[in-house]
Design brief:
Elements lengths: L10 E5 L3 H11 L4 E6 L11 H4 L2 E4 L5 H6 L5 E6 L4 H14 L4 E5 L3 H11 L2 E4 L6 H9 L3 E7 L2 E9 L12 H4 L4 E7 L23 E7 L18 H11 L2 H18 L2 H27 L5 H12 L3 H5 L10 H31 L16 E4 L3 H12 L4 E5 L13 E3 L2 H4 L10 E4 L4 H14 L4 E6 L2 H10 L4 E4 H13 L3 E8 L2 E9 L11 H8 L2 E6 L7 E2 L12 E6 L1 H9 L7 E8 L2 H15 L3 H8 L4 E2 L6 H13 L2 E7 L1
Parallel strand pairs: 1-2, 1-4, 2-3, 4-5, 5-6, 11-12, 11-14, 12-13, 14-15, 15-16
Antiparallel strand pairs: 7-8, 8-10, 9-10, 17-18, 18-21, 19-20, 19-21, 22-23, 22-24
């Protein structure tokens, strides 16, 4: 898609001003464009307080209605973001928008992958995301800790983003300068001194800086390997179970035993389903009626022994009223009240049998595929995943792909075919925390659909294991900020805040392939296809990288193979080229507007030792700075001279190094 400079007439429409829609408006306005919005009804409360001031126009109505879309300037619209919580409304509005404007870009919130593919073919210029699923890798990797911060696949090649803290034993310590860490399969993203703070943006580091202990270095690398399996500590040898039981019984008093039994019964009652609770109450009632019935028949007929009396009560309870009183004339005398009690006993027993069948059926249905046993709960160094909705299931799948031990907790039973290799606890999540070896867990991820419940569960988990990494899913921005202040050690990830940047980037025509968090900022893996009027067309990759603050990680000429990962900075972009970069939202804004960072450095050439050095030096100047080869040769023939072209810091440093390799002395000067 085209990446020309934004014009004042550029208009974007956001349909649906829930949490995601409000974040999308906020991000779009950072690009300095016109943003109109359509909301179904008036709102008195906004999660982003100044949102009405950000909007150029707010329309109340149905975004599926052509009249409303026309009022929102659909004919002058570059892209429309359909992000209501109702997928059907989003898709219907997409058809309405396409009928009014054949060229508008459609950004749709939808989780129907198959339908999205069909719609993309028929509607064209169509992109669909599911907001809650976009940040899944961020949740999983936040829980993993360690060096890896993200990973993604490009053209069947795995790329990993790592953040490593240098110690005195590290092979880079006191041996390598930062620019030396860049290689054919690695690019440095950030560098932070031990006493410093993580910088905002990319390339905020000096290429000639020597790596020292305490430094934190982030980089992206192309690798074939996933994260290696994390070794679980071997549990200590335990004494025989029988010995443990004897020791426990010897220390329990009668009062403590009653308290334990009472607590156990209370736990069974709280964790049981509604059908199970009814079955428990019914069983207690039936046992009482059985004993009362047997006692009454024994008292009324003293000649009966206790076995016969209880047998009569049992027959009546299981529906045997006709066996005892089915004759036209009874062979024995029975008082009216005992006869009536017997009838009630049979009716009650029939009801109880129905309840019993229901409970048994529930158990059978719940265990229909239990022939495949789930693995046991890990003992230590595992991830505890609270909530297994769509997001939780995708996080679990990702963690399993990374060979990370984990256990899931969910309020209701999952189909046994879902994540069969994952240990699972079903029931009340709060009570289940005691069953997952929480004290030895590595991380806790709370991703239920209730952000308040996520906070409560995280606090309970933190009380049991203060050393575990907490990852909390939130939705409302104010709530996210408050939780982050309350739990500064936790990783509070706002699902909609992360996803909104992908929606906004897609609205400008970028193909957002993935996103992740690094140094408290969102990084987007974004793909471009160069067109004639693009701001990128004709640029050196070094100019694209340092001018806009993005990291090129893939380049491909049109119709040509092979694909180049971590491409050379000396490549000049052409129409049809495919380029994938790592960028912040600010970097994408600069590309969209065509505004680059200032070129405040130049290189002064002092002397060349030989004529061959002068020739090679001219070639290096032309290749790295982008100037004409004739100008470069003229410069080398009239030394000392300053190259009359402004350069970026990293570009200038590289030119000085390359000139030094061919025996040409040069130095940096500030313009």
């Amino acid at each position: 898609m085209s990446h020309h400079e934004v014009q004042d007439t550029t208009c974007f429409i956001v349909c649906g001003l829930g949490s995601l829609g409000q974040y999308c408006v906020s991000v779009l306005k950072e690009f300095g464009v016109t943003v109109n919005a359509i909301e179904a009804e008036e709102r008195s409360h906004w999660e982003i307080p100044d949102l009405p001031d950000l909007l150029d126009d707010l329309l109340i109505g149905d975004c599926r209605q052509p009249k409303i879309l026309v009022q929102a300037m659909i004919h002058q619209c570059r892209a429309i973001l359909l992000v209501t919580s109702n997928e059907r409304i989003n898709i219907e509005a997409a058809f309405a928008a396409r009928s009014l404007n054949p060229h508008v870009r459609l950004i749709v919130r939808s989780a129907q992958d198959t339908l999205n593919e069909v719609l993309s073919e028929h509607l064209g210029n169509f992109v669909a995301f599911e907001a809650t699923q976009l940040p899944v890798p961020s949740f999983a990797l936040a829980a993993l800790g360690g060096e890896t911060r993200a990973f993604f696949t490009l053209k069947k090649q795995l790329l990993r983003v790592a953040r490593v803290q240098i110690d005195a034993e590290h092979p880079w310590s006191h041996r390598r300068q930062l620019h030396e860490l860049n290689s054919p399969n690695r690019r440095i993203l950030s560098h932070v001194r031990a006493t410093g703070h993580a910088p905002i943006g990319l390339y905020r580091w000096n290429p000639d800086t020597l790596v020292q202990p305490g430094d934190v270095i982030s980089y992206v690398e192309a690798t074939e390997r996933l994260i290696t399996r994390i070794n679980t500590p071997i549990p200590p040898v335990r004494p025989a179970k029988r010995t443990i039981v004897k020791q426990i019984l010897a220390t329990i008093t009668q009062e403590q035993a009653w308290q334990i039994l009472q607590h156990k019964l209370q736990q069974i009652w709280q964790e049981g389903s509604q059908t199970q609770r009814v079955a428990i109450v019914s069983s207690f009632v039936m046992l009482s009626l059985f004993l009362i019935g047997g006692t009454l028949f024994k008292l009324q007929y003293p000649t009966l022994n206790w076995q016969d009396a209880l047998n009569v009560a049992l027959v009546l309870l299981i529906g045997g009223y006709d066996n005892l009183f089915g004759q036209l004339q009874l062979t024995f005398r029975i008082p009216w009240w005992l006869h009536l009690f017997s009838l009630g006993l049979t009716i009650t027993g029939t009801v109880f049998i129905g309840i019993l069948y229901a409970a048994l059926t529930e158990r059978v249905v719940a265990a229909r595929f239990q022939f495949i046993r789930r693995p046991p709960i890990p003992k230590a160094n595992h991830v505890v995943l609270l909530g297994l909705g769509r997001v939780g299931q995708r996080i679990a799948t990702l963690l399993q792909d990374l060979n990370q031990p984990l256990v899931g907790i969910h309020a209701t039973a999952l189909d046994p075919g879902i994540l069969p290799r994952m240990p699972l606890i079903v029931g009340n999540i709060r009570n289940a925390l005691t069953k997952v070896n929480l004290a030895t867990a590595k991380s806790i991820i709370a991703v239920t659909e209730d952000e308040v419940a996520n906070l409560e569960l995280a606090l309970r988990a933190y009380a049991a294991n203060p050393d575990a990494t907490l990852v909390i899913r939130t939705f409302e921005p104010r709530f996210s900020e408050n939780v982050a202040k309350l739990l500064p050690h936790a990783r509070v990830l706002g699902a909609y805040a992360l996803a909104a940047e992908a929606y906004a980037a897609a609205a400008f025509g970028e193909n957002v392939l993935s996103l992740f968090r690094l140094n408290n900022q969102t990084m987007l893996v974004t793909e471009y296809q160069i067109e004639a009027d693009d701001t990128l067309n004709g640029q050196l990759l070094s100019e694209t990288a340092y001018g806009y603050g993005v990291v090129p990680i893939l380049h491909q000429r049109i119709g040509q193979d092979p694909i180049k990962f971590m491409p050379s900075e000396d490549v000049r972009l052409q129409v049809g080229d495919r380029l994938t970069v790592l960028a912040t939202i600010e970097g994408l804004q600069r590309i969209e507007r065509g505004t680059t960072n200032a070129r405040i450095w130049q290189v002064q050439i002092e002397k060349a030792l030989t004529s061959e050095s002068a020739f090679e030096g001219a070639m290096a100047i032309a290749r790295i700075s982008g100037c004409e080869i004739g100008l470069a040769r003229t410069l080398m023939n009239h030394l000392p001279r300053i190259i009359p072209i402004g350069l970026y810091l990293h570009q200038a440093h590289r030119l000085v190094r390359e000139l030094g390799k061919v025996q040409v002395s040069a130095r940096l000067v500030r313009r």
